Amino acid sequence: MFNIFSLIFKYIFIIIIYMFIFSIIRLIYLDIKGINLTPTGDFAYLKLLNRKDTLPFKIDEYYSIKNVLSLGRSGGNDIIIKDPYISKKHFKIVEDEKEFFIEDLGSANGTFINDERIEDVVKLNNGDRIKISNIEFIFVNR
């Protein structure tokens, strides 16, 4: 009788070990799958400077800018960030003749370029830091 119980517990223990190893491998796979590499191509993009795991909402590392890019809380924006300090329509970036311009859309807490609040349309230069709420992006123009 004791041999049967020890045999059953041995197999249960082996199954638990294999399930643990499988869950570790699955977590590693999901972590590697979630890594966004630097975007390739000849276009401008916004790169998040904050650590993603410190923010209480979902956000990507990179956002490519094709012609127009809008950011805000509402669903009609290209970048949707569910932060209470971000307006429904916070700012937009527009490309015009290979130059990029950012415009604050009347947000309550403002949009900051290199730590200066913008009031009008401002031309973006490569390496400019865009800050809204506690989120900071860097503008990269290739």
TrEMBL record:
Record bears the keyword Transmembrane: yes
SMART domains per the UniProt record, alphabetical: FHA (SM00240)
Protein name: FHA domain-containing protein
One Pfam family per UniProt: FHA
Entry's transmembrane regions: 7-29
Keywords of the record: Membrane, Transmembrane, Transmembrane helix
InterPro entries linked: Cell_Proc_Reg/RNA_Proc (IPR050923), FHA_dom (IPR000253), SMAD_FHA_dom_sf (IPR008984)
Domain of life: Bacteria
Chain ranges of the FHA domain: 69-118
